[in-house]
Amino acid sequence: MVSTYFFKARQSTTSSRPVLSRVPLFAAASVETAPQQLAWPIALPAATSLLKRCMDIVGALVGLLMVAVAIVPIAIAIQLDSPGSILFSQTRYGYRGQPFRMWKFRSMIADADAQKHSVKNEAKGLIFKNEADPRVTRVGRFLRRTSLDELPQFWNVLTGSMSLVGTRPPVLNEVTQYQPHHWQRLAIKPGMTGYWQTSGRSCIKDFEEIMDMDMAYQAQWSLWLDFKIIFKTVAVVLSSKGAC
User: pTM here?
Assistant: First the structure.
C-alpha cells in the first residue's frame, strides 16, 4: 500500500508563515486508483460545516445578481472581440474527486483546447500557465485581470459543487498524474478563491507551493478565515495585484 498524507500546520519560530509537517492520512492501492475508491478519512470541518454552506448560498445569490447585471455588456464585448459562445464550461474535479461542470465567461478563442499543445507551459508541476498565452483574447485579458470571467462560478457554488473559498479545481490531465498525497487537496470542495489567489494569483507557478497553501488552509480552517480570504480577494482583484 502507498501511504497518503495530510499536512498539519505549525507556527515557525523564524517566520510568520506556517510550516507544514506530513502526517499519515490514508492508504491508496496505487496512484491510478479512482478517487471515489480511495479510503477517504473522516470528513474535514471545512467540508461539513453548515455555516460555511449557508455562507456559500448567501454569497452565491448575491454573486448571481452581479452576473445578471454584468452578463449583457460582457456578452456583447466577448462577441465583438471573438465570435463564439459566451460561456465556457469544462469538467473539473472537486470534493473527493467527484467530476463536475465548471462555468466561466469565455476568455479564449473558440478552439483554445485544440491549440493548447502549441503553447509553452511556464509552470512547474501539475498546472498549466503561460503569461502571454496567445489563445487569450483582448477582452479575455481584461476579464481575467478583473476576475470577471469567474462570475458564472457562483452557479457552481449555489448548486454545491464549489464553495466560495477552497482549493483550485483541477482538470483531468492533472489528476491522472497525482501522487498519493496530492489527493488530500480534494478533501474539501474547490473554491472560487483561496490562499493561492490571495498570495500571488497567477504569479505562483509551482504546483507544490499551491499544494502547501491548500494544506495550510485545511489545517487552519475557520469561518473567520473564509471571511478574511474573501475580503482579501476583493482587495487583490481591485488592485490587480498578482494578475500575471
Answer: 0.81
